[in-house]
Structures are given as C-alpha cells and as structure tokens.
Amino acid sequence: MRLQLNELRAEPGRSFPLEGTEELLDVQWEEENLRLEGPVAVQGSAFFQDGRVFLTLTVAGTVHRRCGRCLGDVVERFRRKDFLEVPLEEPKAQYIELAPYVESGVRLAVAVRPLCREECLGICAQCGADLNTEPHRPGCRAGEKEVDPRLQKLRDLL
Ligand SMILES: [Zn+2]
Ligand SMILES: [Zn+2]
Questions:
Q1: Which of 64, 121, 143, 147 has its CA 20 to 30 A from that of 2?
Q2: pTM, whole model, 2 decimals?
Q3: What is the 120 CA–ligand 2 centroid distance (Å)?
Q4: Over the stretch 109-126, which tens digit does the pLDDT of each residue have?
C-alpha cells in the first residue's frame, strides 16, 4: 500500500482515513517463518505535520505457525494497532510505502510462543514422545521427575 502525501501535505494536522490490504510474502520473525493466509487487512488514519507523517495503523490477518511445545499446526488470528511517527527522508516525497510498517506490525501482533492449546503437554526433550498422544518411551527418565522425593528416598533404601 502506498500512502499518497499530496492531500495530507495540503492540510497539515488534518487526519485522513486509510484502508486497504497488503499482500506480504512470508514474514521472518526470530527463527520462525510466519506463513500468512491471504493479505493483511490494513486500516487507520494519517496526518502530516512538520515534515513528518503520523500514522495510526491497525493490521489484522491470519498466520499459520507451529506450536511452541509440540510443533503441531497453529492457526493464529492477529490484530494490532500502532501509532507511528514517520520522518520523511525525502522532504518532497509523493508517497510513503506502507509495507514495512505493516510487516513490523505483524511481527509485534503475533504471540511470542504460539500454543496449539493452553494445556498442550509438548514433546519430551529426552525421549521425543509427543506427550499429548503417547506416554514417555521405555527407559525415559523425564517421567520419573514427578515422583515425590521422599518416596524416591524410600525406594533407594529398599
Ligand atoms: Zn501443542
Ligand atoms: Zn520422555
């Protein structure tokens, strides 16, 4: 999306609505590749003042991710509103390209660690079992951690 500046510049301080969509390629975030489903919906407003553009930008859309515990599929809907101050590098610029702002909005909008569900048990770091669907594999010691230490003491004595 491009935000044309002529109108804004002609009336400093007046807020103009903006609305549209931004077709982003996959967004890299940390080590993760956020797979966007369809374009990102963008809406908000903008005004011009003292050589800067002030933007209120709401981004909304859907991303496909992997659960932070079990690596299962997660479909995450996001929505985020930001207030941005954009200095014009080129004072006479005709427009500003909104894609980079939409993209950083998406990064900030998504959960730090997506989960397929709140109670997801995840994958055992030791035996690799998906604890949502199977018990620890034979010989895995991670499952024994829950044993009451007093009981363990007793067991060692026997
Ligand atoms: Zn999960
Ligand atoms: Zn295990």
A1: 64
A2: 0.79
A3: 15
A4: 999 889 999 999 999 999
